[in-house]
Amino acid sequence: MDDYKASKEAFVSGMTGSTVFHVNMISGVALSSIALHSALRSRVPAFGSAYFLAEFVILAMPLLLSMTLFAEAPGALSLLLLVPMLVLLLLPPFERGTPLPAESRDEPASPNGRSRAETPPQHFSQSLRPLPALTTYRAHMMLMTILSILAVDFPVFPRVLAKCETYGVSLMDIGVGSFVFSQGVVSAIPIIKDISYLQAPIVPKLKSVSRKMIPIIVLGILRVVLVKGTEYPEHVTEYGVHWNFFLTLSLLPIIEILLHPIILHIPVALLGLWIGVLHQFALSSGGMKDFLLNAPRSNIIFANKEGLLSLLGYVSIHILGLSLGTVILPPSPSFFRKQQRQLLDGPSSYRPSKLDPSAPRQNAKIVIELLSYSVVWWMLLAFVRLGLEVSRRMANISYVLWVAAYNTSFILGYISLDMVFFPTRTSKIRDPTDPAGKRLLIEEKGTKSSAPALLEAINKNAFILFLLSNVATGLINLNIQTMFVGNMKAMGLLCAYSMGMCVFAWLCRRKRLWKM
């Protein structure tokens, strides 16, 4: 057992990774699968109902193939998905019917013709409209994470896609950062719904968030006990001897609360970038890099140096995700900035009802802003990499920029696909029931978009699936010497595992098992 444990640890250690282009091509398979699925939904009426097997084959299997059998040729796999999609585009999209009265939203007439998002309505619920592209992105990211944490233990998963030892880029390296970035995106929801949440007393908010994080902290501690107790093979240089990803994940929302007074006053993206730069300064000029690479694990702090020192880098990623959330979740990309200005101008000018977060989303403006951010992050990454290679182990500024560029670009891709296959337009009409003729109705016309049913199910219970996949991976590794399994047998096991995860999500799709 000790010999196999040492061999297994060597099997996943010392990796130098692949290239950014290769990782993007593998991840691009996810976009190709969504393009095919969207073409089927919009052109084939019979595909409108949720068919589990069809969704599994189109949405899950391509991800598994992209990181295993097609890992060296992900472009070919994307082509296999895009060719039938292009053929389907020759068919006209079918109409799903006209908007129902319930889909129209009341809007008071405005003398200067401003949209509802800028004009105070008589009454509205402080809720955000669903963003199917975000659901798709988060579910696909989770699905790739679930698949890769087991696949990496088999030789069919190329070593260049495994986590890098110190420097380099790989599929699993971007997965860790994307998990944190995604958490940051959805953490923007309470702030957008009520900007005054940033000014609320810190202590009650800390107590509330800490209570929600206690189960994750317990899971992190439980994982340490189980790994040590079963002598499960582990990669110490990932986070340290006792630290793990659950502990990092649990601290980020707590740290975000402490940053609320700063978030109120400066652009969120700038704050995230400053934190990344400060972290890099500590690594390069503060001696932290030498400490991380060379210090002996002589005490509890030194033993977990990777987890502790990378934390600030993950805070930077979380805040950059929060910044993106303030762009894509509200009705317009400038919505949150307007909220900030109104709140800072004081009680006399701040009117909470002036900006309505439930107004129709201006997707074209959001896409333009996302494109701008993508260009900026990729350019900054290219510049920084001239003198500093990416390091997930340190969560250095290159890694932070890579995660931001990658996730911004792919969220842009998912939103763009929704706009292409399920276009909508808004129009203003006068309310015939208003005798004065002053009240306007906003009517959204076009095919209403929604996330694929399987991905919706995965997103609903994503964290439970993540826990279940970790348990399943551990059990499989304790009973099978995975590093000696042939490719065909490995693919059979991985297909069964992925099917099991998706079936569990599908069966639980009507109920959220754990609300964080």
Plain-language structure description:
The structure is a single chain. Helix 5 crosses helix 19 (397-421). This protein is mainly α and 516 residues long. It has helices at residues 2-11, 20-43, 52-66, 74-88, 132-151, 171-186, 189-193, 202-230, 236-239, 245-258, 260-263, 268-284, 288-294, 300-303, 305-309, 311-328, 335-344, 363-384, 397-421, 453-460, 462-479, 487-507, and strands at residues 105-108, 424-430, 439-446. A hairpin with an 8-residue loop joins strand 2 and strand 3 (439-446). Residues 97-125 have low confidence and may be disordered. Strands 1-3-2 form a three-stranded antiparallel sheet, with no helix packed on it.
How does the SSE layout of this entry go?
Elements: H1 2-11, H2 20-43, H3 52-66, H4 74-88, E1 105-108, H5 132-151, H6 171-186, H7 189-193, H8 202-230, H9 236-239, H10 245-258, H11 260-263, H12 268-284, H13 288-294, H14 300-303, H15 305-309, H16 311-328, H17 335-344, H18 363-384, H19 397-421, E2 424-430, E3 439-446, H20 453-460, H21 462-479, H22 487-507
Antiparallel strand pairs: 1-3, 2-3
Helix pairs in contact: 2-3, 2-4, 2-19, 3-5, 3-22, 5-6, 5-19, 5-20, 5-21, 5-22, 6-16, 6-19, 8-10, 10-16, 12-16, 16-19, 18-19, 20-22, 21-22
Keywords:
516 residues, mainly alpha, 3-stranded antiparallel sheet, 3 strands
